């Protein structure tokens, strides 16, 4: 049952890929600084987290070799992200529906 | 006894043995994701409630130093990845070189962090009795440009108008700033210790294409610490730069 398809053979990522990922991460850093100086209103934070998540995904997939990992390891990585999503979404939806959590501007708007 | 990559009895193949070690490291990293995730959660809630104080606090950080450190840390991830590549391809002499580069870049990062913490200390931005968010604007030094100080004063005036308890709420921002960057820095100190151990082993020529699990595993840890910073940088340094 423990056949080779369950175990990822070692995959050597060539330095050219590492350099390309490094370049993309530098570009992402420059973009996130540039975007912070623009006024996108409520979307500033969405853009900042979006760029950070793309950068994190590149690090996980290539520097951390997740793309070439076994299915079992991939499942573990996704589980960690899923648990984080549960913690964030449940807690924030709880806070978000409480009156005290709203800012003054939001409360007066609701009247 | 030291491990040299012989096959242990509970495994069928060396690949399976390495795969198991990798899985174990990812389980540990999942707990780290939840550990830092809790801090990001506290940050999100407080930032939403006290957005004026968080904006003012964020703008006191030195973007040049923070940006420089981001580049340094990502570069250290590249050198770490190259150390793993050297081990996988049997380039034994390159492994210690890339490990030393990684260690040096990590040390530069921590050194810059010390400079930043010192500046916050001088500007009375350590949460506690003597915390004063207006201290720097009211006590500029000779190196500060008058135009920057005027802009800072105007920003503070607006923020105090929107939030009379700005001084208390800015302390929340700085508690999170020191808590989150401090724990991140602690992880880097641990990582530096692990790198020193790897360096010793690699100089002894212990890592080969068939046995390089410790390089790979410690590399995973180092890259994880890099990812935490990838989120910390925009969330702490770039909140209200467009103002």
What does this structure look like?
The complex is a heterodimer of chains A (111) and B (243). Chain A is mainly alpha-helical and 111 residues long. Chain A has four helices and no strands. The longest helix of chain A has 26 residues. The N terminus of chain A is likely disordered. Chain B has a single domain, classed as Four Helix Bundle (Hemerythrin (Met), subunit A) (Up-down Bundle), CATH 1.20.120.80. Chain B contains eight helices and no strands. Chains A and B meet through helix 1, helix 2 and helix 3 of A and helix 1, helix 3 and helix 8 of B.
Rg from alpha-carbon coordinates of chain B: 22 Å
Ends apart, CA distance between termini of chain B: 60 Å
Largest interface: A-B, 54 and 52 residues
Query: Which CATH first-tier class of chain B would you pick?
Result: Mainly Alpha
Q: Could you tell me the strand content of chain A as a percent range?
A: under 5%
CATH architecture of chain B: Up-down Bundle
- Shape designation of chain A: flat
Helix and strand succession of chain B?
HHHHHHHH
Oligomer: heterodimer
Our estimate of the beta-strand percent of chain B is: under 5%
Order of helices and strands of chain A: HHHH
Report the uncertain regions of chain A.
1-5
Q: Evaluate the radius of gyration of chain A.
A: 20 Å
Indicate the CATH topology of chain B.
Four Helix Bundle (Hemerythrin (Met), subunit A)
Structural class of chain B: mainly alpha
Mean pLDDT of chain B: 94
Helix proportion of residues of chain A, in percent?
55-70%
């Amino acid at each position: 049952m423990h056949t080779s398809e369950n175990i990822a053979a070692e995959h050597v990522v060539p330095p050219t890929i590492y350099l390309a990922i490094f370049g993309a991460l530098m570009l992402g850093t420059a973009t996130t600084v540039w975007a912070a100086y623009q006024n996108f209103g409520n979307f500033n934070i969405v853009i900042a987290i979006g760029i950070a998540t793309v950068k994190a995904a590149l690090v996980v997939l290539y520097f951390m070799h997740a793309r070439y990992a076994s299915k079992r390891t991939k499942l573990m990585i996704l589980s960690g992200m899923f648990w984080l999503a549960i913690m964030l979404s449940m807690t924030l939806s709880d806070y978000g529906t409480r009156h005290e959590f709203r800012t003054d501007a939001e409360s007066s708007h609701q009247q | 006894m030291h491990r040299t990559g012989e096959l242990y009895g509970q495994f069928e193949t060396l690949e399976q043995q390495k795969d198991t070690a990798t899985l174990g490291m990812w389980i540990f990293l999942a707990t780290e994701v939840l550990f830092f995730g809790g801090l990001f959660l506290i940050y999100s809630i407080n930032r939403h409630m006290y957005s004026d104080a968080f904006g003012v606090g964020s703008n006191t950080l030195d973007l040049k130093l923070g940006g420089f450190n981001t580049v340094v840390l990502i570069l250290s991830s590249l050198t770490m990845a190259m150390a793993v590549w050297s081990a996988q391809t049997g380039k034994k002499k390159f492994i210690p070189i890339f490990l030393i580069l990684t260690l040096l870049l990590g040390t530069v990062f921590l050194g810059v962090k010390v400079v930043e913490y010192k500046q916050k200390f001088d500007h009375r931005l350590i949460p506690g009795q003597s915390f004063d968010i207006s201290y720097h604007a009211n006590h500029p030094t000779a190196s500060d440009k008058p135009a920057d100080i005027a802009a800072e004063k105007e920003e503070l005036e607006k923020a105090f108008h929107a939030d009379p308890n700005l001084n208390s709420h800015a302390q929340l921002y700085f508690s999170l700033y020191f808590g989150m960057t401090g724990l991140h820095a602690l992880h880097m100190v641990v990582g530096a210790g692990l790198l020193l151990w790897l360096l010793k082993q690699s100089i002894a020529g212990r890592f080969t294409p068939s046995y390089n699990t410790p390089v790979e595993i410690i590399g995973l840890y180092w890259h994880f610490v890099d990812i935490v910073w990838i989120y910390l940088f925009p969330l702490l340094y770039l909140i209200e730069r467009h103002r």
